[in-house]
Amino acid sequence: MPVKRTGFVLLTWLFVLGCTRVNHAPDAPAAPTGPSVVTQDSLAGYTSAATDLDGDSVSIRFDWGNGDTSEWSSYVGSGVKVLKNYTWHDIGTDSVRAQAMDRDSLTSDWSLPKPVQVQTPADWWGKTFGGASDDYGYSVQRTSDGGYVIAGRTGSSGAGGDDVWLVKTDAIGHEVWDRTYGGAGGDIGYSVERTPDGGYVIAGSTESYGAGDWDVWLIKTDADGNKLWDRTFGGANGDEGYSVQPTSDGGYVVVGRTSSSGAGQDDVWLIKTDADGNRVWDRTFGGEVSDYGNSVRQTSDGGYVIAGTTWTYGVGWDDVWLIKTDAAGNRLWDRTFGGGFYDRGHSVQLTPDGGYIIAGSTQSWGAGDWDVWLIKTDASGYAVWDRTFGGTNADEGHSVQRTSDGGYVIAGHTYSYGAGWGDVWLIKTDANGNKVWDRTFGGKRYDVGESVQPTSDGKYVIAGYTWSYGAGYGDFWLVKAPAPETTAVLPTPAARLYRSAQPE
């Protein structure tokens, strides 16, 4: 009898156990895979998947073996791949662990080979800054301590849909601090410049403040990015500021576009302020259609030169527009450059001979859909030479700077060359605009260079944004690169000369 009872109890327990759900830990995660090009200190995206015998949802993270881990991902279905983004500065071990956790906090992990740290090419680095949403960098300046400051917009942090974002880095691109400025609406920083007191001035646009739909927004900060004051300029319609420069009298000049005043749908808008950002005067330039001012520089005579785009004047659908004013903003002359299609002026700088260099984009000339367009003018704004750079697809030039050897460097983006949908494109020319070398930077997706500055060590720093790397759909991207080891002056097409001028 006791034997039979023991057997009955044993069978009963086996039946209960058989009907009771036993939760299993997730299987060890699959080996993570990452982007084909991963640079030291870059933000690398790694993909892994884990399965759970019980069908539980699973969260994944990576442990880099140096005391740092990525955040746990959100829970996803068993076997679903997870993309995790994580910045590392120095992986000090030869392995990384992928870890998985189910809803009952049961975990599994597996030691995996250390991700291969590839630097292609070996002499440049790229840093990303951003979160899960869109973060776009538009302007970069060197700082007095050898670092860099980048202005743009962020959808990942701040108070509104987009906020102006200012990021300060050290000389090797590590973030020192960042600041956001904005309210409940959209706010964008398009241009940043250092000020004589060691701080920064930012020009952009705001939906959060001001009088209208969008207003020009001017922000002044101290050396640590703390806002000292801000000013808005605008009317009931859309107004935006695209470029700012400190002026010789201690004030500031801003150029952009206005649809609240002027003669047409949009007019070039030039605003002069005092040292506290109070408006001294403003001027509009344009006709019946849309005209934009994208870049402004103060000239040696105390006046200003503006590069932009006009739909009102010129010979094509839109043309590059160069405007020269006196110190009070009164127009002295203007010139258009273009052909039968679209042509746009994005950036202007002064040249030692008293002339100007303009970078932009052209559909009227060149090899492809859009080509980078570089135009050199004399002191009266007449073209001395021009050069196009590009392939069969769309290529655009966004920023130009003079270099120490008397040549020029252009930053933009290319669909014709590079690794992905679009790559950052850096082009170096000699003093006559002949291409000496060019380089592309990017991954499998979309990467854009918006602003370039030569550095004190003979290299170049580019600010823009990347969809190939980083944490979100777009991240700030700061790229530092030298010239290639081997360079040669490449032949360029013959120049076209332009003699177009609008009536005063």
Give a nutshell description of this structure:
This protein is mainly β and 504 residues long. The chain has two domains: 43-113, Immunoglobulin-like (Sandwich), CATH 2.60.40; 125-481, 7 Propeller (Methylamine Dehydrogenase, Chain H).
Describe this structure in words.
The protein is globular. A four-stranded antiparallel sheet has the order 6-33-32-31, with no helix packed on it. The chain has a four-stranded antiparallel sheet with strand order 7-8-9-10, with no helix packed on it. Strands 11-12-13-14 form a four-stranded antiparallel sheet, with no helix packed on it. The chain is mainly beta and 504 residues long. The protein is built from one helix and 33 strands. The termini are far apart. A hairpin with an 8-residue loop joins β8 (148-154) and β9. It has two domains: 43-113, Immunoglobulin-like; 125-481, YVTN repeat-like/Quinoprotein amine dehydrogenase (Methylamine Dehydrogenase, Chain H). Mean pLDDT is 83; it is low at 1-21, 33-45, 83-94, 114-120 and 486-504.
